[in-house]
Amino acid sequence: MLESIEYTVVRIDGDYAHLRNEAMPDEEPKCVARALLPPEVSEGTRLLYEMFQYSVI
Fold first, then answer.
1. For residue 22, how many other CB atoms are within 10 A of its CB?
2. What distance in Å separates the CA atoms of residue 50 and residue 53, rounded to the nearest whole number?
3. Residue 6 needs a FRET pair 20 to 30 A away by CA distance; which of 14, 21, 27, 54 works?
4. Domain hosting residue 45, numbered range
């Protein structure tokens, strides 16, 4: 079963974005290549990860 995860972009560092899992805010942010994210992503953007894709919510 595939789950949906909500993230917030907490920092953009060159070609990478650091994402905070909203369900586990105390965990270390996840580092993701910006090429995998929608082009309009900026710091503070909320994302939904679902079916191996990120989309802006």
1. 12
2. 5
3. 14
4. 5-56
**Count of domains in the chain?**
1
Nearest to 37 by CA among 29, 1, 3, 12: 12
Q: State the pLDDT at residue 1.
A: 57
Render pLDDT for 4-57 as a digit per residue (tens, 0 to 9).
999 999 999 999 999 999 999 999 999 999 999 999 999 999 999 999 999 999
pLDDT for position 19:
98
- C-alpha–C-alpha distance, residues 51 and 3, integer Å: 8
13 Cβ neighbours under 8 A, 6+ residues apart:
none
